[in-house]
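Appendix C reproduces, verbatim, an entry submitted by the partner laboratory led by Prof. M.T., so that reviewers can inspect both the input and the predicted structure.
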Amino acid sequence: MNWTSRRLLRIAAPFCLGSLVFAGQSGGTEPATPESTKAVTSAEAVTADGADQPERESVASADAMPDLEAKGWVSLFNGNDLSGWSQKNGTATYRVEDGVIIGKTAEGSPNSFMCSEQDYGDFELTFEVAVDPGLNSGVQIRSVSKSAFKNGRVHGPQVEIESAPGESGYLYSEGTGRGWITKEQAIKDAYQNDQWNRFVVRAKGDRLQTWVNGRAIADIRDPESSMNGFIGLQVHSIKKGSGPYEVRWRDIRVREL
């Protein structure tokens, strides 16, 4: 490069660099966002996205099985006797052995119920149960017994207990003539024969939900049934010449909502 060329280059360079800077500032490409701005933008997005988080969590918790380790659970059975319970209907017998309530059938007896002396409205309930093969049983929820109705006949929603294959966990309207509350009964094997089975129930408003051994069984709206009543342990009637059969309950707990 000769002297003239070098001189021209020194003169033109500032103008070229200035044009490049000017083009960078005024062209279509946005300038890089500072890291601090990026962080704020990201945090705002999380806040906006999580605005309805409590509502979503509430819906999720309403669908999930109740947490049996949560606070607020109260035992309905002291493990020693039937204090807090009283029998309604039937002549089946109930006794306590080794921390277990045992109900035994009586030939010729109608359905019998050992009922809580306290009524419950919105609540969660859990218990373990084992029933002899061939015996139908259940647990009443929000149930009623009034002299004006069939001479005190226990009636209300019943959580079915039956050896597999059967309808365990589905809901039956005991004593009302309505029959099954849950019309669709796809699961027949949730109950495990010859062992203890964990049942969980949630009753809130007109929504009734049940789980058997962790499996979701029923989830239904039942505005026709009572919204408040006792909990009852049923020993079903049996055919003449059959039995005796037994059904056993333990770890009966409730949590009011």
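Confidence is low (pLDDT under 50) at residues 2-49. Additional entries are available on request from the coordinating office.
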